[in-house]
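Just scan this pair:

***
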Amino acid sequence: MIDMPPLQFAETNGIRMGFYEAGPRTDTPPVVLCHGWPELAFSWRHQIKALGDAGIRVIAPDQRGYGATDRPEPVEAYDMEHLTGDLIGLLDHLKIDKAIFVGHDWGGFVVWQMPLRHAARVAGVVGVNTPHWDRAPMDPIALFRQRFGDHMYIVQFQDPSREPDKIFGSRVEQTFDAFMRKPVARPPGAPEEQPIAGVGASARLNLAFPQMIANYDAKHDPRIPILSAEEKKVFVDTFTKTGFTGGINWYRNFTRNWERSAGLDHHVRVPALMIMAENDAVLPPSAADGMERLVPDLEKYLVRDSGHWTQQEKPDEVSAKLIEWRRKRFG
């Protein structure tokens, strides 16, 4: 049985946002959990229960474009100003002054922006796998293209034909079968790319996820799934209904976000925690090297034997660390 609190709704920043809440409303500062792509508030189901049971107020929204939350049509409606503004509107709706923002994957990029753009509303920040970086020296899409080539998934997502959206949308179960698995444990010194059945080396090396999904067959995949059949059904049913365009539109704002962040001070001046996953091939622990320069009040914590979906692969460890850090820093 999947244990999730009842779905609630907030009118925020011009959209209706679905969210879940647990723990005592008197607890401050509350913890806001922000998911990544292609995920949902449901990705935090283990932490919602653990933090709520520990007496911590916890809130997990389906973010703009996802799940029970609205999916505006214009691509620009998914830029960083909108994504951070949605979370401020959620605090306003709940009459919360300040919160600790926790983000995984794309949610991590959003929560690291919160203290830069809305400092008065942020008590602390936790990145799960996603580190905080300074503003890139050039347009990130040009950087990705230079480093990984045109087949890298984020570069492909810029294509106005929306071909990747169609590939994922027509193979929803395949998408979650392929993504939501533990990585193959690799011997020390072995390269980070993991062989995935039916996918050529070039697709893996270029992070060509649409092609990987188009050619994927779960029957030949030796990796262990991290979702039960019941959990997978939640993702598959939701994305079958919503499609993937809302979430992919976040990626279509990389250039816009970069252009509009010129002049923004990238120093984070609140207590921060960086949770890293040992075997995340996309956001490896090394990606967090040197973060201390921008985030002076930083604690780092490594989750061993976990791939990219850390809060679902190692739920008890992630929950315990969040509870321990929250109590240590905020009482």
